[in-house]
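step=predict obj=Bestrophin homolog n=200
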Amino acid sequence: ALEPGEQLSEEAAVRISCSLTAAEHAAVHVTSSGMGHTFRVYIVASWLSKLVSQAQEEQILSGDEIARNVDYNLGRFNGAWLSARQIAYSSMPESITHMLWILANMINFVLPWEYVSVCRWMTWLPSIFITISFHGIIRISSAMENPFGFDEDDIDLGKMVEHFDEEMCIVMHYAALDDVAGENIYRSLQNSDNLVTSTF
């Protein structure tokens, strides 16, 4: 806020004209919805369009050198925008799909039989690694398919850690009580009296 009698400098006036409005500022913070990233990109595009329109009205772009620079930078922005859209809506990478396929087969053919019969009370240890790897990769790959790629706030790490901590505590609790490690917890999860493999 300005003090009584204080005048606004020319630089501050220019910055104010380039600042976000209250509606734009609120829209930028809409990130909890599935379209939050889309809103932010379109807000930036709208803000850029407003700046270009204001510059054109003030005849700032009348110089040849300035016009060439603006045209070049807008072309770069347009190329980056199209590239981001192409990456955002592409399918899951083959490497991640192959890794998920390997993990699914490991769980089907190895975990229910070998780990319980060989590791016994230590079954919870490899179960933790496989659980984190499998579910973690699925969550990361799903987040990468969100509009405009993978961002640092796509995965709620706090919620993920809390979920995995609860799962691990359950497995470790049963591993300490059972003679054959997590056999009872496995049966209860599968709603079966016998250990059988499931098909993914």
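step=describe
Residues 94-190 form one domain.
step=end
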